[in-house]
Amino acid sequence: QVQLVESGGGLVQAGGSLRLSCAASERTFSSYNMAWFRQAPGKDREFVAAISWNNNTGYADFAKGRFTISRDNAKNTLNLQMNSLKPEDTAVYYCAARGGVFISTLRTSDLYEYWGQGTQVTVSS
After folding, report:
1. Alpha carbon 119 to chain centroid distance?
2. Residue 101's pLDDT is what?
3. In this structure, are residues 53 and 30 in contact, taking their beta carbons and an 8 Å threshold?
């Protein structure tokens, strides 16, 4: 059982930046495919970015050029650097994990086995 704990959310003005982190309990973290999803009030959970076990990355269109996903396997940590934030980025952000070897990054929430509790990101206009 992998436990995931997100941190780094908060309130920021439009145009600002935040760095989210997700600490994983699993010592074999490096073998997991990881991702960030978000859910705004009244909306479905949506894909933000993913990084595979072998460091391939993928982004939702709204995240390209503004968000960067990375992982530090030595620290069992997943990160999401978010720049140029917009009010529409306001949501609860979740990290997710899935074991296994995949050719491409996983962008569907149903494919992920483990989830964190989420961290709130609020962007004011």
Report:
1. 10
2. 84
3. yes
Unique residue bearing structure tokens 């483990």:
114
Give buried/exposed letters for 105-114 (b at 16+ CB in 10 A, else e): bbbebeebeb
Report the b/e string of 20-54 with b at 16+ CB within 10 A: bbbbbebeebeebbbbbbbeeeeeebebbbbbbbe
Which tens digits make up the pLDDT trace of 41-96? 999 999 999 999 999 999 999 999 999 999 999 999 999 999 999 999 999 999 99
**Structure confidence at residue 105 as a pLDDT band (50, 70, 90):** confident
